Amino acid sequence: MKATEQLVWVIYDIVKNKPRTKIAKILQEKGLYRVQKSVFLGTIERNQLDELKLQISDLFDEEKDSVYIFPLCSEDFKKVILMGQAFDKKLVTDEVKSLFI
Fold first, then answer.
1. Band of residue 95 on the pLDDT scale cut at 50, 70, 90
2. Burial level of 47, CB count in 10 A (0-12/13-18/19+)?
3. Average of pLDDT values for 20-26?
4. b/e per residue 22-35 (b: at least 16 CB within 10 A)
5. How far does CA 82 lie from the centroid of its chain?
6. CATH number for 84
7. Is-contact 18 65, C-beta < 8 A?
8. 53-93 per-position pLDDT tens digit
9. Which domain covers residue 47, as residue numbers?
10. d(CA 10, CA 67)
11. CA pair distance 40, 33, nearest whole angstrom
12. 5/90 Cα distance (integer angstroms)
């Protein structure tokens, strides 16, 4: 991971399909990887984090939906504990798996 990149988790609960699909597409375009149906993980340029927030903030209903963006430093990420079926095996790439090794 480059010094200019930030490791992030993005987790959401969006009621309507259309905004949920748009948000997932934006996250994938930013290079994040889907690890569960509504959970993405990856690195993003630090200066793009605010841009990402702005892009998705207009797409969901703040009264009904929720989006969590968790920036995480490498040291803290190494402390992540995976238990059971931690990932949806159909969605997770080897690149995501390598983050945990």
1. low
2. exposed
3. 96
4. bbbebbeebebbbb
5. 16
6. 3.30.70.240
7. no
8. 999 999 999 999 999 999 987 777 777 777 776 666 555 55
9. 5-99
10. 7
11. 5
12. 26
- What was the pLDDT predicted at 36? 87
In which region does residue 90 sit, left (phi positive, over 0), alpha (psi from -120 to 50) or beta (all else)? alpha
Beta strands in the chain (DSSP E): 5-13, 33-36, 39-45, 66-72
Q: Which residue has the higher pLDDT, 33 or 98?
A: 33
Q: How far apart are CA 2 and CA 44, in angstroms?
A: 10
Instruction: Domain count for the chain, please give it.
Output: 1
66 closest CA partner among 9, 5, 10, 18: 10
Q: Hey, what are 74's tokens?
A: 């490498």
Within 10 A of 95 (CB to CB), how many other CB atoms are there?
11
Six-digit token string for 1: 């991971």
